Amino acid sequence: MDTILVIGASGQIGTVLVQHLQNQYGLNRVIASDLRMPQAFSGIFESLDATKADELAALVRRYRVTQIYHLAAILSANGEANPIRTWEINMQTALNVLEVARTQNVSKVFIPSSIAVFGPSAPAFDTPQQTQLDPTTVYGISKVAAENWMHYYHVKYGLDVRSLRYPGVISYQSQPGGGTTDYAVAIYHQAVQGQDFTCFLSENTRLPMIYMDDAIRATLELMEAESSRIRVRTAYNLAGLSFTPAEITAAIQKFFPNFRTQYAPDFRQQIADSWPKTIDDQAARNDWEWAPAFDLSRMTEEMIHHLSEYYQ
Ligand code: NAD
Ligand code: AKB
Fold first, then answer.
1. By C-alpha distance, which of 26, 25, 44 is closest to 34?
2. N or C: which end of the chain has fewer CB within 10 A?
3. Which of 25, 63, 69, 139 is catalytic?
4. For the chain, which ranges sit under pLDDT 50?
5. Residue nearest atom 7 of ligand 2, based on CA coordinates
6. pLDDT tens digits for range 263-297
């Protein structure tokens, strides 16, 4: 019987992933942990600073953890405010997780990567699995390093590490934590509240995105796949959908014809310009049969439906 530790459980993805894991494994088999306690929570929650290796090791021992989902990180936009601190947090937490997994016989580890590993040298359209990685953010640099460390632990110690290069994740259940793709969540909140939106990216900035349902399903499918099928031990490219601020505005206008977006690009524009526009995820499709389910119109319908209930 597996016992699962989720680190960074109060964040955008962790909030939703923990609920799915609890449904699958049971409330008593999932240990949610974070620096900050969520507002409402059912199940086991432990306060944890994952930069502290001893605290992490004690938790893994106490609960006899067999799988770790390590989601704690400082994201692309917030990371630029303090690059050295971002590097320290992102790298130290990832290394602590790999080391505790190695020394305490944790059977499987998931540490997500990001489309932020790519930089200006990668092809912008259908960005391939294997290409030059020259990220321009400290967040991207830390993700490339973490991918290489995961590969190292797999080859050197046989650790079963798995990872996805998530695109920007879009959710109604939780707020994003300081990235360059955050506008694509904020825009729905504004529209549903009857307000116009000011976008920090320009109208034709195309970025890869994914709806939360697809992101969670991809994560669980990857983690459930037979180990022999996982041929990429850095991180798999993952595609959901791709759109520009102008296109998401048009999709929202089908529900709210008077909704308008203004454009006021800031420092995040440069980050977005260095990232892919569309992703080639053939390796994930081939190896563990990944296929996304949500396009822009289906996602928009669901986002507006759920957020309308929330703001009622
Ligand atoms: P988030 O910022 O919403 O949540 C991260 C959580 O980590 C926060 O709750 C924070 O309190 C916690 N945390 C930070 N430092 C910690 C520490 N030292 N110890 C314990 N907890 C700590 O991030 P998210 O969007 O949920 O992303 C989760 C993972 O997925 C990250 O690794 C991120 O890089 C990756 N990712 C996310 C996206 C996205 O669009 N959300 C896209 C690509 C990759
Ligand atoms: C960000 O914008 O930093 C994240 C990501 C794509 O990694 N959403």
1. 44
2. C
3. 139
4. none
5. 114
6. 999 999 999 999 999 999 999 999 999 999 999 99
- The response to whether residue 179 sits with its C-beta less than 6 Å from ligand 2 reads yes
Is residue 139 annotated as a catalytic residue, yes or no?
A: yes
Query: CA angle at residue 118 from 112 to 123, to 5 degrees?
Result: 135
How far away, in angstroms, is 40 Cα from ligand 1 center? 18
Q: Which residues contact 19 (CB under 8 A, 6 or more apart)?
A: none
Ligand 1: nearest atom to the Cα of 52:
18
Cβ partners under 8 Å of residue 157, min gap 6: 102
pLDDT tens per residue across span 98-107: 999 999 999 9
Three-state DSSP at 168 gives strand
Q: Which ligand is nearest to the CA of 71?
A: 1
User: 95: closest CA among 129, 63, 57, 61?
Assistant: 57
pLDDT at 40: 85
Integer Cα distance of 159 and 263 in angstroms: 46
Contact 144, 227 (CB under 8 A): no
Ligand found nearest the CA of 56: 1
Q: Are 207 and 181 in contact (CB under 8 A)?
A: yes
Q: Which helix (H) or strand (E) holds 61?
A: helix 53-63
Q: What pLDDT score does 38 carry?
A: 81
Ligand nearest the Cα of residue 79 is 2
Please list every protein residue whose CB sits less than 6 Å from any atom of ligand 1.
Answer: 7-8, 10-14, 34-36, 48-51, 71-73, 75, 89, 93, 112, 114, 166, 168-169, 176-179, 181
Joined together, the tokens standing for residue 186 give 């904020």
ipTM tops the 0.95 cut = yes
Q: CB-based burial of residue 262 (10 Å sphere; 0-12 exposed, 13-18 middle, 19+ buried)?
A: exposed
Could you identify the residue written with the tokens 């294997």? 130
Type of residue at 154: H
Nearest CA to ligand 1 atom 29: 71
Nearest CA to ligand 2 atom 6: 168
Asked if 141 contacts 86 with a C-beta cutoff of 8 angstroms, the reply is no
